[in-house]
Amino acid sequence: MINSDLLSVVTVSYNSSKTIGKTIKSVLNQSIKNFEYIIVYGNSTDNTLEIIKSFNDKFKQKGIEVEMSIEELYQDEMLYLDMLLYMKKLGFELCSLENGFYDQNSGKLLQVDGIFFKTNTSLNG
């Protein structure tokens, strides 16, 4: 069943170190509470990822959706298994996999979206 009361906010980032922090703060400070926040990280060459990771505590009680490639689609990107290990190292547990996208010619699955939640956290913060 689709929850029509859920708002999805998507931020696509590539070399966004100058704006990503302000963008995340703006989304997290909204009065609406029933929303999902998806950050699509584009394998930036600046410190965008470090800025996103600096919000780790803010995401403790919230899920994070991460695009994970089955095979390399972008130069030097982390593949599925590496991303699973990386997220586990950060204290997140994979809770769900959603279909990503397929090669239109072969039908081969190229990317999935992983839904992660912080492990070992109480609901009281």
TrEMBL record:
Alphabetical list of Pfam families matching this protein: Glycos_transf_2
Species name: Polaribacter aquimarinus
Domain Glycosyltransferase 2-like: 8-61
Recorded superkingdom: Bacteria
GO molecular function: hexosyltransferase activity
InterPro entries: Glyco_trans_2-like, Nucleotide-diphossugar_trans
Residues passing through the membrane, by range: none
Protein's name in the database: Glycosyltransferase 2-like domain-containing protein
